[in-house]
Specification:
Elements lengths: L8 E3 L7 E3 L9 E2 L4 E2 L4 E2 L4 E2 L4 E4 L18 E2 L4 E2 L4 E3 L3 E2 L4 E2 L4 E2 L4 E2 L4 E2 L4 E2 L4 E2 L4 E2 L4 E2 L4 E2 L4 E2 L4 E2 L18 E2 L4 E2 L4 E2 L4 E2 L4 E2 L4 E2 L7 E4 L4 E5 L8
Parallel strand pairs: 2-4, 3-6, 4-7, 5-8, 6-9, 7-10, 8-11, 9-12, 10-13, 11-14, 12-15, 13-16, 14-17, 15-18, 16-19, 17-20, 18-21, 20-23, 21-24, 22-25, 23-26, 24-27, 25-28, 27-29
Antiparallel strand pairs: 1-2, 29-30
């Protein structure tokens, strides 16, 4: 079976319209909405909640010119107490740790890890090969590009965009994609744009609408286009 083939799905009488792939593990404690699809080999943790129309564990479908790995990913893993929202998609190879929320219509791609107690908000998209720490909050329609790293307690506001390709689709052979690195407890404001490979330091704050073209020092507040340091985050606002 290639990475774009979903494999055999069979109806189950456990919930209306439920389809299960071979070897999928769905404990009795899992709450199931209508028309849920769980693909082959997927492991769902105790007391997870899979809401109407969500799809978990489907292999990725790649375009003919995609340079992303075509090796079949491992089955998806959904931790105990995780909520997967209405119409959300979590691909094969993704791991969502305990007590996290993948909200309605969100999309989490292959080989991505979402740490415990994190939230991927409504309509947010997390690309392949991303590492997200614990207690991270991605708000509505945030976009986290491939090969990004988000450490613990990071906050990404609605509509913020991380990028990874400085050539806008015209990379040469062997030229890697490099996403952003968001250090512990930094905050990214609504509609901000982060260029490829930038690092936002621990406890830093990127203002709404800023375009970040270079690294942001730890604890700095930056704003504008291009973003510039204007002050430091007050100690009272820091997680410590």
């Amino acid at each position: 079976m290639s990475a774009s083939e979903p494999g055999t799905l069979r109806p189950s009488d456990r919930a209306p319209g439920l389809l299960l792939g071979d070897g999928a593990v769905v404990p009795d404690s899992v709450t199931l909405g209508a028309n849920v699809v769980v693909h082959a080999g997927t492991r769902i943790g105790e007391n997870a909640v899979l809401l109407d129309g969500c799809v978990v564990g489907r292999p990725p479908a790649l375009g003919p010119h995609s340079r992303t790995s075509r090796e079949a990913p491992q089955p998806a893993s959904i931790g105990a107490g995780v909520v997967v929202g209405i119409g959300a998609v979590v691909l094969a190879g993704a791991a969502v740790r305990e007590d996290s929320v993948i909200a309605d219509q969100a999309h989490v791609r292959e080989r991505t890890e979402v740490g415990p107690q994190s939230v991927v908000g409504r309509g947010a998209a997390v690309d392949n090969d991303v590492r997200i720490g614990a207690r991270v909050k991605l708000q509505t329609n945030a976009y986290v590009t491939a090969w990004s790293v988000l450490e613990d307690d990071v906050f990404v506001a609605p509509g913020a965009t991380l990028s990874n390709d400085p050539t806008a689709g015209r990379r040469g052979e062997g030229q890697p994609l490099v996403g952003a690195t968001l250090r512990r407890a930094c905050r990214i404001g609504a509609g901000a744009v982060l260029l490829p490979a930038v690092e936002v330091g621990e406890e830093a704050f990127v203002a709404a609408g800023a375009v970040v073209t270079r690294d942001v020092p730890a604890g700095a507040v930056v704003m504008g286009v291009p973003a510039r340091r204007v002050r430091d985050v007050p100690e009272a606002e820091r997680l410590g």
